[in-house]
Design goal:
21% strand, 6-stranded mixed sheet
């Protein structure tokens, strides 16, 4: 197998607002929140109550069925509130940080069973994902292989690690290697190739979604029915390595605050689950507009409120764009505005080049209609799968057809670009998520 793979299908969305400079650590954040919705595949039950004192790594929630997989506190302080929604479903557990930061200790042993227990107790297990179904790995899950993506190719995405993290990445890969009978694969950019001998390093070149771990799996060793593969990103691997190398549970993160509505986009050092209001304090936003703040990238991120939202998993990017709901445009969809982007070259913007940065907003710029079999998904979908037919099979919940069309290989994020270019404006990611959940219940 070649250690270099070129992804030909895809699309790099030229969004304005790239983060460049970095600020010092933001120590002003007091409120943090962990949202169980970010960790699919399990029903989460609260293990704390308001007023409880917690340390870094203290269990906040655990899976209801086995009580072994934990979601933990990223900071030390006090539980402020357990926010619930309909039918008392837990939406978030909020923690008020205190000045003195202390951490729970974990039993560091280098045998597979103890490693699994430590990862579950420390909350690092919940940062992994299992395919099929794109869920937090089940408690007894044993992976055929483990795939790590070393870069993020999404719009305005930051670098995942620095050179100082390489020793921790090496240790993290050694730990993960003990949990599989197969290989640990690391996907990297050709120009960013860390020398980590224990992993099978594969270089990927091409547009987004080349950084999606699902694309890398499909290009190297696809998931078949009955097989289980774990996936994660290199930043999570560095966290695992730091726990085993220095016995430090570290949920700190460097967040890229990006987007066309940020006047001074840059990186800020904070911690997983930090409140959006304090992260954005040092940023100049175009407050005269109706803004959409997204925790994550513009394709797969979650819309959050500035005053009440939190930095959501995977804790590395915030995007700010205009809603566009109050913007008037001469001739509407038929406008010949030279600053209007289209992948189909329907507007004159392509004459000046489509690689230059554009000021996108949140309008879908189309109408809901039946799916059009125009092969527009195929141009940005680098799987050996027929995406339109798979979506139709999910809609009909035809299990046999879903399996034949590759349902076990995909995750919702793999359909983000097809959703972006879709003429019919169908919520493909939502359809895939619901289809995976329903399929898992059935089998």
């Amino acid at each position: 197998m070649s250690n270099y793979i070129k992804i030909k299908k895809g699309l790099d969305i030229p969004l304005k607002g790239t983060a460049e400079s970095t600020t010092d650590a933001d120590n002003s954040t007091i409120l943090f929140g962990i949202c169980p919705e970010d960790f699919p595949g399990h029903i989460w039950k609260a293990r704390v109550k308001p007023g409880d004192k917690v340390k870094i790594g203290t269990r906040l929630l655990s899976d209801k069925s086995t009580d072994t997989i934990a979601l933990v506190s990223p900071v030390a302080g006090f539980v402020k509130e357990i926010i619930r929604g309909e039918r008392r479903r837990i939406l978030a557990v909020t923690i008020e940080k205190k000045d003195e930061q202390t951490s729970d200790t974990f039993d560091i042993r280098h045998n597979p069973e103890e490693i699994r227990k430590t990862l579950k107790d420390s909350g690092l297990w919940s940062l992994l994902r299992q395919r099929p179904f794109d869920i937090v790995p089940e408690t007894d899950s044993t992976p055929r292989d483990i795939f790590i993506t070393g870069f993020d190719s999404a719009p305005l995405a930051p670098e995942l690690i620095s050179t100082e993290d390489i020793p921790y990445v090496e240790m993290g890969i050694k730990i993960l290697f003990m949990l599989t009978s197969g290989k640990v694969y690391l996907g990297v950019r050709p120009d960013k190739n860390p020398n980590i001998g224990i992993a099978e390093t594969i270089q990927f070149e091409g547009p987004h979604p080349a950084g999606n771990v699902g694309v890398q799996i499909a290009a190297v060793k696809p998931v078949n029915k009955g097989e289980v593969v774990w996936t994660t990103d290199i930043r999570t691997v560095a966290r695992i390595g730091k726990l085993y190398k220095d016995n430090i549970l570290d949920y700190s993160t460097t967040v890229a605050v990006t987007g066309p509505e940020v006047e001074n986009p840059h990186f800020v050092k904070t911690c997983a689950g930090a409140s959006l209001s304090t992260i954005l304090e040092g940023f100049k936003l175009h407050e005269d507009k109706n803004l959409r703040i997204i925790s994550g990238n513009v394709l797969t991120g979650i819309k959050v409120e500035k005053e009440s939202g939190f930095l959501r998993f995977p804790y590395r990017q915030i995007s700010v764009i205009e809603e566009g709901d109050s913007r008037g445009e001469f001739m509407g969809w038929a406008s010949m505005n030279p600053e209007k982007y289209s992948v189909k070259r329907s507007f004159p913007a392509f004459l000046k080049g489509l690689s230059r940065p554009f000021n996108f907003d949140a309008r879908i710029k189309g109408g809901h209609r039946a799916m059009i079999l125009s092969e527009e998904y195929d141009k940005v979908f680098p799987f050996d799968i027929y995406p339109e037919y798979l979506i139709k099979a999910i809609g009909n919940f035809d299990i046999d057809r879903m399996e034949k069309l590759g349902i076990y290989e995909v995750a919702p994020e793999d359909f983000a670009l097809p959703e972006f270019v879709d003429t019919s404006k169908i919520e493909l990611q939502k359809i895939v998520r619901e289809g995976l959940d329903k399929l898992r219940e059935e089998i």
